[in-house]
């Protein structure tokens, strides 16, 4: 995934009225501004600013906006490549939410303006002096494309800024190296080419992963999943893999799915998914052979990947109309090779706090454990940090969120072994996705520009004439020019007005 800055600025001029290519075609320093009516702010942005008590805005701007009829601005950045984009936000230079970063800009009274990411991280707030200070300016990312391929930048100002160059009434300030765009993506995984039959483990990653060679071993730099049955045999100690739970695959004329033992996940059976890094490429699907998949020492990786959210697809049911799915999350150290299976005993539980159920075919969330969306046929309960979902149908995607980082999850058929009726179907699992696996950033602050509204003076009316009659040289002439000058102090407020007579050095012409 890559973020490209398009070169479009968002220039907000503090001068009263709009300044852009249409409203002020000259001079060039005003024609390249991007002022837009405050009333044009996106409703999400405007509503949030109102809720924050931002007050009355004095001006707004939109990236690339010229004021021409039908102009809706231009993307300030575009995103290409990579997987599904899960989040776009304003971030700092480390890719983290902005939390008190000094913008390098000040209010008129010299108070430092600090930068904060809002709870809606498409919104950036510039506050005077601290997190509770008055909002001086704000910015908003308007995401474009479906799926998202870029974004426009809106800015709005509530107070004029202190511009240091007193000789330039159009003095320009920006947020260079203070504000960045962050794009976060999910990672899906491919089981294409996975060995069939009963296996001790499967190790799989995304299609066409990135690799590196470390000490002569080619390793995958992308996150990789290791799947085993719920209670696999300790093969490295001599046990036959069939004495424990196995993992197996099925294509059935469609995408590869995984189950355990007899292919489907039956009552009280389950699959453990571990999130790792540095997986050895030659024993990772599609390079993993069935023989290699039966040897514990081939579970070769170097680290674990921590996440707070993942999702999986329930793709087939058997022996009932709906299923019971139980989810338990864990945190573990990296225990590759012959220590992998025994390492399950040392896992630390991590509580699950939220579950979403989505209809894959429509993309619609049909159940949310927070109560915001409810399907009467689905029930989600939590006990000891473990989530249980009843009423699950084929074609549902289940997404869960944990209180803290986890790197392993156990997905079980939660129905009782002696369950009766049609609500304890066996099921298998298709797509597995880790949320927010990587964030790419790009500097955008240099394109967020604020121009001064400095003082100005203009001549008005007919100037009086001073006449001296040389007949009586001691008689002087006096006139008042006060009414012939109109002055404005600009957005910075009242200053001191002084008059001075200027003359060009050289011959007078008399």
Structure notes:
The longest helix is centred in the N-terminal third of the chain and has 9 residues, at 43-51. The chain has 510 residues and is mostly beta strands. The protein has helices at 28-31, 43-51, and strands at 2-5, 10-13, 35-36, 59-62, 77-80, 85-91, 99-106, 112-117, 123-128, 135-144, 150-157, 172-174, 180-188, 202-204, 211-214, 217-220, 224-229, 247-250, 257-260, 270-277, 279-280, 303-304, 307-318, 323-331, 348-350, 352-359, 364-368, 379-383, 386-392, 396-406, 408-413, 426-443, 448-451, 456-459, 485-488. It is 3% helix and 41% strand. The N and C termini lie far apart (74 Å). It folds into 2 domains: 2-179 and 444-451, no CATH class; 188-436.
Short description:
The chain has 510 residues and is an all-beta fold. It has helices spanning 28-31, 43-51; strands at 2-5, 10-13, 35-36, 59-62, 77-80, 85-91, 99-106, 112-117, 123-128, 135-144, 150-157, 172-174, 180-188, 202-204, 211-214, 217-220, 224-229, 247-250, 257-260, 270-277, 279-280, 303-304, 307-318, 323-331, 348-350, 352-359, 364-368, 379-383, 386-392, 396-406, 408-413, 426-443, 448-451, 456-459, 485-488.
Q: What percentage of residues falls in helices of 4 or more residues?
A: under 10%
* Number of domain modules: 2
Instruction: Work out the strand percent.
Output: 35-45%
Uncertain runs are: none
Average predicted confidence as pLDDT: 92
Let me know the largest β-sheet.
9 strands, antiparallel
Oligomer: single chain
């Amino acid at each position: 995934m890559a973020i490209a800055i398009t070169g479009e600025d968002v220039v907000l001029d503090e001068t009263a009225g709009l300044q852009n290519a249409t409203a002020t075609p000259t001079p060039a320093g005003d024609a390249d501004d991007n002022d837009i009516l405050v009333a044009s702010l996106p409703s999400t942005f405007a509503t949030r600013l109102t809720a924050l008590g931002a007050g009355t805005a004095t001006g707004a701007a939109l990236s690339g906006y010229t004021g021409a009829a039908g102009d809706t601005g231009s993307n300030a950045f575009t995103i290409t490549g990579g997987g599904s984009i899960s989040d776009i936000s304003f971030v700092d230079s480390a890719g983290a939410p902005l939390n008190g970063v000094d913008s390098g800009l000040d209010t008129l009274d010299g108070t430092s303006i600090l930068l904060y990411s809002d709870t809606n991280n498409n919104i950036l707030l510039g506050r005077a002096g601290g997190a509770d200070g008055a909002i001086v300016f704000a910015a908003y990312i308007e995401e474009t494309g479906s799926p998202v391929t870029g974004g426009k930048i809106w800015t709005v100002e509530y107070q004029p800024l202190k511009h240091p160059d007193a000789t330039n009434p159009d003095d320009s300030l920006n947020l260079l190296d203070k504000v960045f765009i962050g794009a976060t993506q999910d990672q899906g995984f491919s089981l294409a080419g996975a060995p069939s039959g009963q296996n001790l483990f499967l190790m799989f990653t995304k299609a066409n992963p990135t690799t590196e060679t470390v000490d002569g071993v080619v390793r995958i730099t992308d996150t990789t999943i290791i799947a085993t049955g719920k209670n696999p045999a300790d093969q490295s100690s001599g046990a036959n893999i069939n004495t424990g739970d196995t993992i197996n695959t099925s294509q059935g004329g469609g995408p590869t799915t995984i189950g355990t033992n007899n292919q489907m996940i039956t009552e009280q059976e389950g699959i453990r998914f571990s999130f790792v890094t540095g997986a050895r490429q030659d024993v990772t699907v599609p390079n993993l052979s069935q023989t290699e998949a039966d040897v514990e020492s081939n579970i070769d990786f170097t680290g674990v990947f921590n996440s707070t959210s993942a999702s999986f697809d329930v793709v087939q049911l058997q022996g009932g109309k709906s299923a019971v799915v139980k989810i338990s999350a864990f945190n573990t150290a990296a225990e590759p090779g012959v220590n992998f299976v025994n390492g399950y005993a040392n896992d630390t539980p991590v509580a699950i706090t939220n579950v979403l159920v989505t209809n894959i075919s429509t993309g619609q969330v049909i159940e949310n454990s927070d109560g915001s969306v409810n399907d009467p046929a689905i029930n989600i309960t939590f006990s000891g940090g473990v989530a249980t979902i009843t009423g699950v149908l084929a074609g549902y995607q289940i997404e869960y969120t944990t209180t803290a980082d986890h790197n392993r999850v156990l997905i079980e058929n939660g129905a009782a072994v002696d369950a009766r009726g049609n609500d304890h179907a066996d099921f298998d699992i298709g797509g597995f996705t880790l949320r927010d696996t990587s964030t790419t950033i790009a500097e955008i602050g240099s394109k967020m520009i604020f121009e001064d509204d400095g003082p100005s003076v203009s001549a008005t009316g007919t100037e009086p004439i001073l006449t001296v009659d040389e007949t009586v040289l001691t008689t002087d002439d006096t006139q008042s020019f006060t009414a012939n000058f109109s002055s404005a102090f600009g957005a910075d407020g009242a200053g001191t007005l002084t008059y001075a007579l200027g003359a060009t050095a050289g011959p007078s012409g008399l």
